[in-house]
Design brief:
9 helices, 184 residues
């Protein structure tokens, strides 16, 4: 319980300092992704600064950028929420608001509760954990995951499409290059 209170306090401070309102996206989508990667960074250690996706080159090609959107989408979502310098993309804020509403409405969903549990415990999902469910639990979690997919994955797929649009892709590629230059 203490860990949960500390994390909630950190989240409140982060949201207050950045002006963001997307608590559920940051906890369920972004932070659980970073935990699963075993990244050495969290949304809290970034202190409201940008987290750059891992790329091998200074300037990304469109194909490399499409791989980033495919495999590192939560990092792009985090930057679009937190970083004021992130480019304004068509329909992005509307889709992010829709995803946040869906996650809020699914707070009692077993799958979302499982994501939040791992967020609070700072642990990743493992295959063994899912295999250890009884048949009844597996059925319940499967139904909850299906419900989650019906609402949230639609928004995540839409966000992926928004990021992949050529005009938007060019803006984000330029932003990533500028951020990399600022670091060096």
């Amino acid at each position: 319980m203490i860990n949960k209170a500390i994390i909630n306090y950190k989240m409140s401070r982060l949201l207050k300092s950045t002006g963001a309102k997307e608590r559920m996206i940051l906890s369920c989508v972004v932070e659980t992704y970073l935990i699963a990667l075993q990244a050495r960074v969290s949304i809290f250690s970034a202190n409201g600064n940008a987290i750059l996706p891992y790329v091998e080159k200074e300037v990304l090609s469109l194909d490399e950028y499409n791989e980033v959107t495919e495999y590192q989408l939560p990092i792009l979502i985090y930057n679009s929420i937190i970083d004021d310098g992130f480019p304004k993309l068509d329909d992005l804020s509307q889709t992010i608001n829709e995803l946040e509403e869906h996650l809020n409405s699914l707070k009692d969903n077993l799958w979302v509760k499982l994501m939040l549990k791992h967020y609070y415990e700072n642990t990743a999902f493992t295959k063994e954990m899912l295999i250890n469910f009884s048949d009844e639990e597996a059925t319940e979690y499967g139904a909850a995951r299906g419900h989650y997919n019906a609402y949230c994955m639609k928004c995540l797929d839409e966000l992926k499409r928004i990021f992949k649009r050529k005009r938007n892709a060019r803006k984000v590629i330029a932003w990533i290059a500028d951020e990399q230059k600022a670091i060096q």
